[in-house]
């Protein structure tokens, strides 16, 4: 992806390069999964140093290519790719979702009276967690097994894809709200290590989810995504 192309949108950068969410956050650029604003226009509008942000994005892209140099998602069969997604991303969520929930409850108890925005973070996170838990089960029971005989299960895959892609968009919206509520995961002064750890894990979860959704929407389900101008 050429980030310097004037037609590139913020949403398409995050879909291709999940780490960009952190870079955009650092520059105070608002993004969302369906963000149609042009990157170059936003850079000008916000008076951001063009060269610095392009270099940061290019560096992150290089790192990503290095990490995945031996894995070619585009040539994997849907069955192999869905097994990879389950092993890598679903297992990660099953471990991390409850861990963050506990940490959030702890920091809310300790810091909630001073940092009242944590109540909103807690509420949004609770929604995200329960939506995702249902979502993982839907994929594992209704979608992934259908790829074992894709030709015979086209209708089922198309129906489930529509639901799954809509759920991804809903998760993307909650992630964006969480980013706002936490002021881009900025750690306030004078808080404890648990607070820091919670925000770090939340930001990591956001990046992992972008990566995960990218693999599902743009590779696994690319032939079933019927959204206009996706
Ligand atoms: Fe998934
Ligand atoms: Fe998914």
Question: Mind summarizing the main beta sheet?
Answer: none
Count, helices: 8
CA radius of gyration: 18 Å
Estimate nothing, just give the exact number of structural domains. Answer: 2
List the ligand species: fe (ii) ion
Shape: globular
Give unreliable regions as ranges.
none
Number of strands: 0
As a percent range, the share of strand residues is: under 5%
Mean pLDDT: 90
Q: Can you give the helix content as a percent range?
A: 55-70%
Tell me the span between the first and last alpha carbons: 16 Å
Helix and strand composition category: mainly alpha
H/E series: HHHHHHHH
Architecture blueprint of SSEs:
Layout: H1 10-16, H2 20-26, H3 39-45, H4 50-67, H5 78-111, H6 117-143, H7 154-181, H8 193-220
Helix pairs in contact: 5-6, 5-8, 6-7, 7-8
This protein binds fe (ii) ion (2 copies).
List keywords for this structure.
2 domains; mainly alpha; 8 helices; globular; binds fe (ii) ion
